[in-house]
């Protein structure tokens, strides 16, 4: 049967209070999911910086084969004439990553906001805290949301919330004014048609991350919300290198999404090089939720059925636990503490062992 390539997202020695030594001590964890966070979006990732990151990870006894994320410049998503320059930069970054042995690039095609929550430190009954989304508390003004996210970050950088990119927020919204879902899909196809032949040549697989939350917000279109969206995206460019990151938490934020069915649809097609497996807890009928510990009993998603779907389809790709709580007095990056994600890995590998022995 297949073996999971278990990983742990790491933000680098300069911006993560978790060390590679600690990550290596999590049973079954062989991979670090990393990135360069000091290169502006749209610019080429320098080979020397990629190589330095790879050397740092391998020196700690771990592998670096998945990058999350090489973010896409808004000019590409909007479809501006300048997009070709940024696509060429992206292609060069793919080539540079391939030279360092990178096999998968996780990315998203979300306009403006990479992901969002209304509370980054929601207090739970057990004394831990986790990120939460409540529709009624979503500010109507995007600038207010930005201020809210910044104050809740407690000094940590938030992936996808680059301050230099979002500095002129109203200008960015104005640029997206004529971009609807159809146009965003067209621009995604333009991007994929340009990069996938390079990915095939250099053996680097693209893995699009779902929209989070999986619904339109602030009038911005969303193209990866459910199974039907995924079927459209796979047809934009027919290649196993045009793949998905299936994030159970993001897709699971819509209770209508059948996560095991989505897995059974796309894993056999070899379109899922990367999995994010996490749980969430719905708090009302309106779909408000907070993030939870990974076990099924702690949230609203059936993690056994999710892992069983992966097992039944012989999944052998990369996988990592996703957002967890801050527990045991830890005050880490929202969603990315050490202890709860380590517990998540132990739980997921325990489920996998049980499935192997059934």
- Tell me the number of structural domains: 1
Strand percentage lies at 5-15%
pLDDT averaged over residues = 94
Structural class: alpha/beta
Query: What is the count of DSSP helices, taking H or I runs of 4+ residues?
Result: 12
Please tell me how large the radius of gyration is: 19 Å
Task: Write down the secondary-structure element order.
Answer: EHEHEHHEEEHHHEHEHHEEEHEH
Spatial order of the strands in the main sheet? 1-2-3-4-7-8-9-12
Pathway: Carbohydrate metabolism; pentose and glucuronate interconversion
Family: Belongs to the mannonate dehydratase family.
InterPro entries: Man_deHydtase, Xyl_isomerase-like_sf
Keywords: Iron, Lyase, Manganese
Please tell me about this protein's structure.
This protein is α/β, with parallel strands linked by helices. The chain has one domain: Divalent-metal-dependent TIM barrel enzymes (TIM Barrel, Alpha-Beta Barrel), CATH 3.20.20. The chain is built from 12 helices and 12 strands. The strands form 2 sheets. The protein has an 8-stranded parallel beta barrel with strand order 1-2-3-4-7-8-9-12, surrounded by 4 helices. A 4-stranded antiparallel sheet has the order 5-6-11-10. β10 (280-282) and β11 (289-291) form a beta hairpin. α10 packs parallel to α11 and α11 (303-312) crosses α12 (338-357). It catalyses: D-mannonate = 2-dehydro-3-deoxy-D-gluconate + H2O. It comes from Lentilactobacillus fungorum. Catalyzes the dehydration of D-mannonate.
